[in-house]
Amino acid sequence: xxxxxxxxxxxxxxxxxxxxxxxxxxxxxxxxxxxxxxxxxxxxxxxxxxxxxxxxxxxxxxxxxxxxxxxxxxxxxxxxxxxxxxxxxxxxxxxxxxxxxxxxxxxxxxxxxxxxxxxxxxxxxxxxxxxxxxxxxxxxxxxxxxxxxxxxxxxxxxxxxxxxxxxxxxxxxxxxxxxxxxxxxxxxxxxxxxxxxxxxxxxxxxxxxxxxxxxxxxxxxxxxxxxxxxxxxxxxxxxxxxxxxxxxxxxxxxxxxxxxxxxxxxxxxxxxxxxxxxxxxxxxxxxxxxxxxxxxxxxxxxxxxxxxxxxxxxxxxxxxxxxxxxxxxxxxxxxxxxxxxxxxxxxxxxxxxxxxxxxxxxxxxxxxxxxxxxxxxxxxxxxxxxxxxxxxxxxxxxxxxxxxxxx
Length: 407
Description:
alpha/beta, Nucleotidyltransferase, domain 5, 3 domains, five-stranded mixed β-sheet, four-stranded mixed β-sheet, 15 helices, 12 strands, 45% helix, 19% strand, elongated
């Protein structure tokens, strides 16, 4: 150990290192690093490290510990203190809580807050190089900071209109289920998984009373979302996202295009097959912008008009849109185009949710915006080997949980 100096009890060290409710015992240099020996003041002594309740002492632990503090210029700084343990009625024998660090952390609170802020606002290489820590360490810090913030702020309070969706975050069918508040635009919940149990975990956390307060839920047509919503949210109206409805119609249209192209190719109509292979761009056009040549294939043109009429329901008032939707279902059932006949059956089953989305003007647009930001966070968080670290960074970024910079 390095040579100790005579600087004792000076408040400037507490301010420099962001220490509160702490008594400075000594300051010394050890192997080129500044070490500040401290102890909690009487208000912070003998508290459980998990729940912070006062508890009877157990033993003195395993000697003294050090926590990495914010650097002082180019010099590494550490806080050193004993590690006594208490016997908590709820958590058993645990290490005492300290005011300068979170439980189980090896860094001070100010250090972790700065790392979390940098992780949200800068690149991973900048965070790791500036703070002189490994990127995996940043993931653990984000998890601790986000967990503490979620204990202090109830993100699930006052929810009335929510959107539920899934997003792929890694190869191999690795998904996150996310929940967004339509009224605030904030991400309020996220978890690894894409199944009924994941949605039920959210509803369990929401609680029975707050489930009754949910009025509208926007989502796609997946049964693993629709089932729990119908079972657990008695007063909620499910609104089927318009984008997913039109996407199904676009997929059906593209399937017809491939069928017509294959028919032309088998019949030896090389020129027609070549035109159909490049017709995908034309199928994205509005009807009034199509040329006469692009309307020549009646089967494909009929499928195109079916897709366009389904799009039209979202541009009309609710009553007119409902009539047009019912007419579309009748037309699609007898159109003799198998993909659209199948789609008509799906639309019939989802009719109530589609009409509800039109009446309430609700879509998953806010959720998709959050998903886009999560994709950016995923790229920035490359190297996090757990979904928990990614979720923590997403919550810090999109749920307004990011701590301010120290001081």
